[in-house]
Design a protein that fits this description.
Elements: H1 2-109, H2 115-121, H3 127-149
């Protein structure tokens, strides 16, 4: 019986040793896998850092190019701005002249203005005088023609 017990104990011991070995192997494998994973992560981090550095360098280059373009655009805009200012000044002067002319016309063409002030501002205050002279002369002419043809007796005696 002692041999059976010993055999059982030996088997149990062997089984326990096997289990311990398996556990140790599993732990070693897990450690190796963890190490491999860490190494992979480190490599990925390094690659990411390299990519980030490259991207940063590219961004810096792009920024420099953009700054140069902006400077050129600013110079062009300044030149255009000067030209636009000159054009605006000319346009403003033209607008002011047009406004002044319109104001003069409004002052002259105001419908509420009395007739004589209108005529004076238009320098047409001679018009009534010329109209009166024309009307009177036309009456005298018509009267003379009618007297000549004998349609009307003259108011004043005359000799032939």
């Amino acid at each position: 019986m002692a041999t059976r017990k010993q055999c059982k104990k030996e088997k149990k011991g062997e089984e326990e040793e096997k289990e311990e070995k398996e556990e140790e192997e599993e732990e070693e494998q897990e450690e190796q896998e963890e190490q491999e994973e860490q190494e992979e992560q480190e490599q990925e981090q390094e690659e990411q850092e390299e990519q980030e550095q490259e991207e940063q360098e590219e961004q810096e280059k792009e920024q420099e190019q953009e700054q140069e373009q902006q400077e050129e655009e600013q110079e062009e805009q300044e030149e255009e701005g000067k030209q636009q200012q000159q054009q605006q000044q000319q346009q403003q002067q033209q607008q002011q002249q047009q406004q002044q002319q319109q104001q003069r016309r409004r002052q002259v063409d105001n419908p509420k203005m009395p007739l004589m002030t209108f005529l004076l501002k238009r320098r047409l205050h001679y018009l009534p005088i010329f109209a009166a002279i024309f009307i009177l002369s036309s009456f005298f002419l018509a009267y003379g023609i009618s007297v000549y043809h004998g349609h009307v007796e003259p108011d004043f005696p005359y000799r032939r």
